[in-house]
Amino acid sequence: MIPRYQTPEMASLWSEAAKFRRWAEVERLALLAWERLGKVPEGTARRLGEALAQRPIDAGFARAVAEREQVTRHDLAAFVDVLGDWSGDPTVKRYLHYGLTSSDVVDTAQNWALSEALGLVLGEVDGLLRALRAKALRYKDLPTVGRTHGVHAEPTSFGLKFAHFYAAFTRHRERIARAREAIRVAKLSGAVGNYAMIPPEVEAFVASELGLGVDPITTQVTPRDRHAELLAALALLAAELGRLALEMRHLARTEVGEVEEGFAGGAQKGSSAMPHKKNPVGFENVSGLARLLASLVIPALENVPLWHERDISHSSVERVVLPDATTLAHYLLRRSRGLLENLVVHEDRVRANLERTRGLVYSQRVLTALVEKGMERDRAYRLVQRAAMKSWEEGRPFLETLTELEVPLSREELTALMEPGYYLRHVDDLYRRLGLV
Questions:
Q1: Is 149 part of the annotated catalytic residue set?
Q2: pTM greater than 0.85 (yes/no)
């Protein structure tokens, strides 16, 4: 991921040095497991750990691996060579990578990293949920117009807009948590996954030390449906972030004007040419990057079918999509939370827009009242529709065009029907369902 869309935490997690530190820890724990089985001289793992404490894996180590890879044409083999030399211990160098294949180290370390990355993502989901909860509570009793097909429909609560997203991101949190559990597995089962050169006890020990589970059965690699599940959860998260951004962008249009992004006074510039501009560029940024994040699920799905016990076609893809997807998710959640926390809501404009169609938003309630008075429904519908079309065409209040027709409702009764509070009478029940009140 380019630096513009990185977060410091993800940049650190996915750095080359951090990757090699995770690989070294898997190798160290495997040595320790072998020691307990009496296959490796006692103290080998300890000496590797001491060497790494004295000479930590850093950017210089990563450069040495890159240089060695030019010779080996194999990154894990280059890593093992450099780590052995880095330790300065002949016994460590002799037994390093004992009984292991590359994927034992790479998959275990990568799954460990993905678990940590999703932990960071979940933390940002929680932050976004807090921001949505605050907005939902603040605007619970503010009437607004609901829109279907982009056209005014009926009154609703402005706070419900945020409550809907609160419910949705709660579901996304659950999906990501499930995907995190699915990826939290170690894999040290050897070249074709049958433990021929490494007993299950080594895998169980390493997994336990890393706080991971054990995949019940693998080939040479962890089955890639686990990774696809992770990317699918993040793709769904991206779609929701895109939906949130699109709603805010619509509400920020000049013709609507119900919200605007926080603006940094004279320091910020909305346009290089037009000084008056205050554009929803933050939410547009979220919209665009959400599309990118959602698209990364496709290569993850295509990584599931591999030849026989394993090929390497998934590897190059994952070097890009796994760091990029988790980084994008982390960035987008953090950006969206900041935008919501600084969102300006113009309550007067919200109320004005509700009245913009001069009462037409109450047409269904009038229809229902006529049916309750004994009128046949289709006749009532046609009558109300006639008055509504006249209001549209002549720009007159709906109440006036209704009273000009022969309807069994007095002007006072019609006026009482055109009150937005009626449409908010069950909002508290909805909030209780979500645990918001």
A1: yes
A2: yes
